[in-house]
Amino acid sequence: MYGYTPFLEKLIKELSKMPTIGPKSAERMALYLLRTSQSQARELAEAIVKAKENTRKCRICNYFAQEELCPICQNKDNRERVICVVEDPQDVIAIERTGRYKGLYHVLWGKLSPLEGVGPGDLPLQALLARIKEGKVVEIIIATSSNREGETTALYLKRIITPLGVKITRIARGIPVGSNIGYIDQATISEALEGRQEVSA
Q1: CATH 1.10.8.420 spans which residues of the chain?
Q2: What is the pTM of this model?
Q3: How far is Cα of residue 5 from the mean position of the Cα atoms in its chain?
Q4: C-alpha angle with apex 85: 84 to 88, nearest 5 degrees?
Q5: Which band of pLDDT confidence, cut at 50, 70 and 90, is reported for residue 28?
Q6: CB of 84 closer than 8 Å to CB of 101
Q7: Fold for domain 58-198?
Q8: Beta strand segments in the chain, E
Q9: What is the pLDDT of residues 72-90, one digit of tens each?
Q10: Which residues sit opposite 198 in a β-bridge?
Q11: Architecture of domain 6-54
């Protein structure tokens, strides 16, 4: 029984490594790419390489940046002295699209997960504490997801931030249990931010 060529098999294999892309989806994507023109395929490949080569983490908040600082941190003087702590860069995009939040961010690029071997030392927590210790921050909003790992991360953040004497709040429970902020609609995110509650001792 004949199958795909080795090069096509390789393409399908690489595409299937992407999040939420299973073997069947990867196969459909690969076959679609084969139907595109050579110029379209080159443009896609070039876009991937350029994005990889020219995207870095912001030196301050860890969000996407093309230079040393992301656009948000470059204009931080025009923002409120509030830091919203999120798990992933797409969470920043989701919150920014609401147009309701005018503060700063700190992107963890993950969450605490002992079962997966992700501990406090694997997240940029010390950088967050250093930002708070500068004395300009008046509030920390914990906006981690509502699943087990997100709640574990939130509790740990509360524990290490509380001694610094800054106000700590948690986004309201309008976010469905087990959901990631990056996939929630703008109205729900806005309500969750507006209804955030101070974390009790």
Answers
A1: 6-54
A2: 0.78
A3: 37
A4: 120
A5: very high
A6: yes
A7: Dna Topoisomerase Vi A Subunit; Chain: A, domain 2 (3.40.1360)
A8: 56-57, 64-65, 82-86, 104-107, 139-142, 167-170, 197-198
A9: 999 998 899 999 999 999 9
A10: 169
A11: Orthogonal Bundle (1.10)
